[in-house]
Amino acid sequence: MTANLLALEGVHTHIGAYHILHGVDLAVPRGQLTMLLGRNGAGKTTTLRTIMGLWRASQGRITFNGQDITQMPTPAIAALKVAYVPENMGIFSDLTVRENMLLAARSARNVSQIDEARLQWIFELFPAVEKFWSHPAGKLSGGQKQMLAVARAIVEPRELLIIDEPSKGLAPAIINNMIDAFAQLKGSGVTILLVEQNINFAKRLGDTVVVMDNGVVVHAGSMRALADDEALQHSLLGLAI
Question: Where does the ABC transporter domain lie (predicted)?
Answer without folding.
Answer: 6-239
